[in-house]
Design a protein that fits this description.
With 392 residues, the chain is an alpha+beta fold. It folds into two domains: 35-189, no CATH class; 236-390. The protein is built from 15 helices and ten strands. Strands 1-2-3-4-5 form a five-stranded mixed beta sheet, with helices on both faces. A five-stranded antiparallel beta sheet has the order 6-7-8-9-10. α12 packs across α15 (361-390). The mean pLDDT is 84.
Length: 392
């Protein structure tokens, strides 16, 4: 199709683009302050909502609902004297909500109910070292005889790499709890309080939750207008395109890597080992019908390297997921539901929002080279060996 016609079609037949522009142009307090991905700000909001004495007008409703969801969804892993029904009748008059107490993001403490709930909040990062084990020991030492509960809160509901007995919780549940409360309490909340909390739920829905609203719209737009968007990116000289091109060159320089295709928004590649091992039964995504590929995903200031199971033969896809699940620490995303299209089973962060501040192109390229080299030396060989060992 002629390039001019591609662009005309993109502009004329793009309801999703109009919807996206409407969303991002709408005023939102959290967007203005650029704190969408800032963990400490989310922890501050959650601390405020969880506190029955906060000036939000919700009393203990958010706290009680949070704990009830926690107990209901983890009835098989929470063992102790406290039950779901206790949460319903407990008095929370003595509740303390502590921030960064002994480096724990959030602590819910009730002495009269002998309950201590530690929350580790990870919005765009993972735990480091043995921090979860250390936090668990802190609670056991500080509150002996208490019912200690450890919660690992992430947008995707990820399994922590370290630490035992940590309960998985996600931001989709936070969004659901707060949305339900806003609907039920709208008439009794002050206008400014309601607007603030409503804007927070909007941010969670659009940006923070897994498969967020904006991510899904962008995917739809890209799938429908891929040629037009790649053409636009081709003629838009910017740092993000240069980084994707640099990644493609790094891949070409490695004898054991195979470049599948490269564009601004994504660079897809595999290894000779994986290419020879796994049948090429993919559908409509890669140029070589590959079903398991590495994807350097360039979202502008957020850039990640992922290992993705793409659309294709369902038997092969399930087998890949099952093999990945044999190493839950390395493939900590493989536990999620295998949808019909894409499932990320491994992810390595390259850039997050703010990393581009005060850095020129060459500095950023150098950073990419170092991180890619580290990936090749530390993870790539282990990933190949894992699949070579378990593939029959």
């Amino acid at each position: 199709m002629d390039d001019k016609i591609l662009l005309e079609d993109f502009l004329l037949r793009n309801e999703e683009l109009d919807r996206l522009e409407s969303m991002v142009s709408e005023f939102n307090f959290f967007e203005v302050l650029e704190i969408i991905d800032t963990e400490i700000r989310h922890s501050n909001v959650l601390s405020w909502l969880l506190d029955p004495n906060g000036n939000h007008g919700l009393g203990d409703h958010f706290l009680r609902s949070f704990l009830k969801h926690l107990f209901y969804n983890n009835r098989d892993s929470i063992h102790g004297a406290i039950t779901f029904f206790d949460i319903e009748v407990f008095s929370f008059d003595d509740i303390e909500i502590r921030r960064e107490w002994k480096k724990i993001d959030l602590l819910i403490l009730s002495r009269q109910n002998k309950m201590a709930v530690a929350i580790e909040n990870k919005v765009r990062s993972e735990e480091h070292g043995d921090q979860l084990t250390r936090y668990a020991m802190v609670l056991k030492n500080e509150f002996p005889g208490y019912h200690n509960i450890f919660v690992y809160l992430t947008p995707e509901g990820l399994t922590p790499r370290g630490g035992e007995n940590w309960i998985i919780f996600d931001y989709a549940t936070i969004h659901s709890i707060l949305s339900d409360l806003l609907n039920a309490k709208k008439s009794s909340l002050g206008v400014s309080i309601f607007d603030f909390m409503n804007q927070y739920t909007t941010i969670l829905r659009r940006y923070v939750m897994e498969n967020s609203e904006i991510v899904e719209i962008c995917r739809i737009i890209y799938q429908k207008h891929k040629q037009a968007l790649d053409l636009i990116y081709q003629y838009k000289p910017d740092i993000f395109l240069e980084i994707s091109e640099h990644v493609a060159e790094l891949i070409k320089s490695q004898k054991n890597l195979v470049l599948d295709k490269a564009g601004k928004s994504e660079v897809i590649f595999t290894t000779k080992v994986i290419d020879d091992l796994i049948p090429k039964v993919g559908e409509g995504w890669t140029t070589g019908n590959r079903i398991l590929v590495f994807n350097y995903y360039n979202e502008g200031e957020k850039q990640n390297l992922r290992l993705i199971i793409g659309p294709g033969d369902s038997t092969v896809r399930r087998k890949i997921q099952e093999i990945a699940q044999k190493d839950p620490k390395r493939f900590n995303l493989a536990k999620r539901k295998l949808t019909k299209k894409w499932l990320t089973i491994y992810q390595k962060e390259f850039f997050r929002k703010g990393d581009f501040n005060d850095k020129d192109t060459e500095e950023l390229k150098d950073s990419v080279s170092k991180k890619f080299d580290k990936f090749v030396k530390e993870d790539l060989g282990r990933i190949e060996e894992h699949f070579r060992t378990h593939w029959e």
